[in-house]
Amino acid sequence: MTNLIKKTILTGLGIVSLTKDKAEKLVKDLIKEGELSKSEGAKMTKDLLEKVEKNKEDLENKIEKTTAKALAKLNVPTHKEITDLKKKIENLDKKLSKK
């Protein structure tokens, strides 16, 4: 039963948008209603927050990859490419000012 409740919460709220406060409130409500014991509630809160963090990291990685692909397709230079280009310009400027 606990697993079904957890899946329902995760699906209904959207795992990424679940905050610690929301998770704790949901679990407290389930304990009040007799759906969970206090020990099950503590474990469920911990599990929910771990899943939130993992899914958040996964989402961030997907966004970074998608953004990098889009920028590459648009031929937009990366931060590293711009920094390298600035260094080259500075080096050339130093060489020219020595002459």
Structure description:
There is one protein chain. The chain is mainly alpha-helical and 99 residues long. It has one domain. It has 4 helices and no strands. Helix 2 (20-32) packs antiparallel against helix 3 (38-73). The model has no long low-confidence stretch (mean pLDDT 81).
Helical proportion? Answer: over 70%
Task: Tell me, briefly, the overall form.
Answer: rod-shaped
For the biggest sheet, the summary is: none
Q: What would the average pLDDT be, to the nearest integer? A: 81
The helix/strand series, from N terminus to C terminus, equals HHHH
Return residue spans where pLDDT drops below 50 for at least 5 consecutive residues.
none
The radius of gyration over CA amounts to 25 Å
Number of domains: 1
How many beta-strand runs?
0
Structural class: mainly alpha
Beta-strand percentage range: under 5%
State the distance separating the first and last CA atoms.
80 Å
Number of separate helices: 4
Short description:
With 99 residues, the chain is mostly helical.
Question: Tags for this entry?
Answer:
99 residues; 4 helices; mainly alpha
Question: In terms of topology, how is this protein built?
Answer:
Blueprint: H1 2-13, H2 20-32, H3 38-73, H4 79-98
Helix pairs in contact: 2-3
